[in-house]
Amino acid sequence: MAKALYIDYQKCTGCRLCELVCAVSHDGISNPARSRIRVIKWEAEGLYIPMSCQQCQEAPCMNVCPVKAISRDEEMGRVYVDYDVCIGCRACVGVCPFGAMSFNTIDKKVLKCDLCDGDPQCVRFCEVKAVDFVEADEVCILKSRNAAERVSAAGKEASALEAQL
Amino acid sequence: MPLNRKIAYIDLTTGDIQTKPIPLEVRKKFLGGRGLDAYLLYNHTKKGCDPLGPENTLLISGGILTATCASATARTHIMAKSPLTGLLGSANMGGFFAPEMAWAGFHHLVIKGKAKNPVYIYIHNGEIEIRDARDIWGKTVPDSQWAIREDLGDQEVKSCVCGPAGENLVRFANVMTGIKNSGGRSGMGCVMGSKNLKAVATRGTMDIKIARPAEALEYNKRFIDQIVSAKVNQTQGVLGTPFIWGATNSWGGVRTRNFQYNQCEYADDIEPERIDEICEETMGPHHMTGCYGCQVHCRAQYKIPEGPYAGKYDEGPEYTSQGAFGGETDTPRALTVLVGNHLVNQFGMDNLETGSLISWAMELYELGIITSKQTDGVDLRFGNDEAVVEMIERICYRKGWLGDALADGGIPAAEKIGKNSFDYLIQVKGMSNLHSDERATPGLALNIATASRGSDHLRSRPAIDLYHLPQEVLKKIYGNPVPYDGPLSSEHTEYVGKPWQVFWHENCYMGVDCLGICKYHTTFLGATLPNFEDWSKVLYYNTGIEMTPEEIWEVARRCNMIERLFNLREGLTRDDLNKGDMLNHRYFDEPCRRGAIDVVGRKIDKEKFIKMIDELYEHKGLDEDGIPKPETLQSLSLENEPSHLL
Amino acid sequence: MATESEGVSTAESLRKTRTYGKFRCHNPTCMERIQPEKGKKTAKCATCGMEYRVHWVNPSLPRIRGPVWDVNRKLAEAKLKEKGVK
Q1: Exposure of B598 by Cβ count < 10 A (0-12 exposed, 13-18 middle, 19+ buried)?
Q2: pLDDT digit string (tens) for B159-194?
Q3: Where are the beta strands (DSSP E) in B113-206?
Q4: CATH assignment of the domain containing B578
Q5: pLDDT-based confidence at residue B59 (cuts at 50, 70, 90)
Q6: Among partner residues A15, A28, A121, which is closest to B210 by beta-carbon distance?
Q7: In chain C, at which end, N or C, are there fewer CB atoms within 10 A of the end residue's CB?
Q8: Residue B10 pLDDT > 80, yes or no?
């Protein structure tokens, strides 16, 4: 089973180190505009959400590509761009519901997460594990566990309150 | 290459804008950030210039490593002649501004003149324009930034701004970015206000090519690992900087009731663990946030839990706010600290200076040196939470006689108040001391007395002196990158060897400020954190510049010497209580009354202290009056300053 | 030159000097290492008698939260008297 990127935005500290290491590891250049992962921020509320490619099964980018440059790589669990075929029409950029397919205006190329061929650098550098790399079938278990912990904590709080009454 | 980031000269009077590359020879002499800013300040201001006049030069910069693949290169540096001290003004802040400016093509800004109406500067991918800010003038720190984003239609724009305090020419107004990242101390926001410059905004998507990307990336991983594994940073990552105040208060190293006590007793409600609880209650378990590229995440998020400001979101409080609005004023209540912190962040005002001046005024009030007539009815007794909050606002908006007087800074206020008020003012070079009390720690006392921007802990504090490090560890740290054979002591209450430690840290902190890296990533609070040797590698992998650790040390010495030259030109003399390297008499006269058993009763021995200054001057290559010897200037290639290379 | 060497720097070499699970007594003439009992919220210095409240940052990282205030004040007052400070 291929692994998947698992983003827990609550853990994100908003430091954007993921953006830096993504750009440097792929292009040897520091420039967040080259990053395949982006931290979207609502600074007035202190909310930071890392956004990256979801590697969709029914990937709109793949379906819309007029030259079939985008395909699913089942072994890696990713949607992959073949740059030898890509004509840079940006149709994929237009249809991605997550804005995860972007266009590098310097090199004139589309860019998206390729999971660093199995060793995502964003994950390697994120000490708080806001971005993690886990077995694809574990993603929902992890989410369930987190949700269950919240339910359990709420339950304990409620019974503590009841006990006070 | 990071080295192709440019310098821009902006004249707000004429609207003229020039840009230039920064030559490699200048880089090798001053690197960037604070060091290069010091050079620029010395070269671009005239002796005796009015800090609030158009002739003062405001410098804003990133370090040479800013936005490269090095760890935590978030720091923005701001420099000008200080309207608070009349000497060197300098501020350094985290956040996201300097990296964004680097992606927009610039490392250094030299801003002169004064705009007719409020303006802001917008820097975007190599282009610079001056834009109207009349609609933004008057807005708080965060609101100004959101308004600029609206004006430019881009939510990714990063700005550094002055708040209402800067507009009102409060002499210790900050330059700020984000919610709470503060370029504090010495009134750089006041200089912005005096120039009618509300903000500098920037947005950049220009490439910064890394010289050796694979090595830079791997080395960064190694560097980060060294940093986040340190106990001090693990603690910071959970409790934030309040842990510093907590630890210091625990042994008796924080000023309380201005200078009457050296410990805030029964301070449980503002201890870091309590603050952390409030952050968790209001923001959830993951309430720590970080500056650009930093894995320490020392900044907490909170909402004010109750009272008139209930529900307001902010960041911090830093240890400085605990000290300023909790300890010094003897109001150890979380709510007061959180509200005080929120207000100074909204106003863009230095929390340290504000809290220190309020606590000084409280002592004067209790002594009858100022009366309720001068406070316009505010009952300015120690422990009065409402009075603290009220005075913060009065200072920012210069309301009432005392609010207006304090807004001009300690020494001018002492002149207005008269009597013997100056005797009680805990300051060096016109800048109020941090909330820390250095009576039991001679090394730390030497640091604040001789720091280039006035009483300050971030220029040369040998903080690791408090850890009782074994001799062999001390020798390893302080014998690098240049040899030192003199004595060193593990005892922080000792005088021996401290001048070398202060000298070493002065160069270490200048180094980190030139690179643009945060001090939590060097030998500041952790003895095992990176310094010169490690920087030599980071610099090479990222920029291709080959410099030995010794050469970086020399750059740091050179830049510190330029700061000294600036201060001397503006009138620093060794023993001058207003403008010199000297402490308030209370350090020598009043013993500590609280703290750990063997802190109690300690004070600074003046004779030994003066000897320490002599020794420090010798290490720095200064004569006994604190003036650089000709051979020192020659060895640092500074004999022909100002040399106008840029 | 240094940049080409892959050896460890001084700072890195000092990493082995880090100690876990302990802290030093805050009393300057004492500075003895205290190893609080795992998870326990107070600790007393066996050498000088200072008493501390302990916070556990994580299970292997204790820190001094603060002194036990009443003990702290008593010790300070006694010292002031001993030193003849008014």
Answers
A1: buried
A2: 999 999 999 999 999 999 999 999 999 999 999 999
A3: 119-124, 127-132, 158-162, 175-177, 181-183, 197-203
A4: 1.10.599.10
A5: very high
A6: A28
A7: C
A8: yes
All partners of chain A with 3 or more CB pairs under 8 angstroms: B
Q: Is residue B645 part of a domain?
A: no
Q: Is B143 helix (H, G, I), strand (E, B) or coil?
A: helix
Mapping DSSP to helix (H, G, I), strand (E, B) and coil, where does residue C84 land? coil
| Closest CA of chain C from B123, distance in Å | 34
CA dihedral B169, B174, B176, B179 (to 10 degrees): -100
Give the Cα separation of B215 and B217 in Å (integer).
5
Beta strands in B235-390 (DSSP E): 288-289, 299-303, 313-315
Q: How many Cβ atoms are within 10 Å of B500's Cβ, its own excluded?
A: 22
CB contact under 8 A, C28 and B540: no
Domain that holds residue B154: 2-203
Domain A1-52+113-165 has CATH 3.40.50.150: no
A77 has a chain B CB within 8 A of its CB: no
Q: Are residues B188 and B317 in the same domain?
A: no
What is the pLDDT at residue A143? 77
Domain ranges of chain C: 11-83
Residue B424 placed within a domain:
yes
Out of B271, B467, B601, closest to residue C85 by CB: B601
Say yes or no: B103 contacts chain A, CB-CB below 8 A.
yes
Indicate yes or no: CB of C3 within 8 angstroms of CB of B536: yes
Architecture of domain A55-112: 2-Layer Sandwich (3.30)
Regarding whether B477 and B621 lie in a shared domain, the answer is yes
Phi-psi region of B516 (alpha: psi -120 to 50; beta: other; left: phi over 0): left
Q: B87 and B27 share a domain? A: yes
B152 close to B136: Cβ distance less than 8 angstroms: no
- Please answer whether residues A53 and A76 qualify as being in contact, where contact means their C-beta atoms are separated by less than 8 angstroms: no
Interface ipTM: 0.95
Domain segments of chain A: what residues?
1-52+113-165, 55-112
Helix (H, G, I), strand (E, B) or coil at B530: coil
Q: Which residue has the tokens 């003036």?
A: B627
Q: Does B412 touch chain A (CB under 8 A)?
A: no
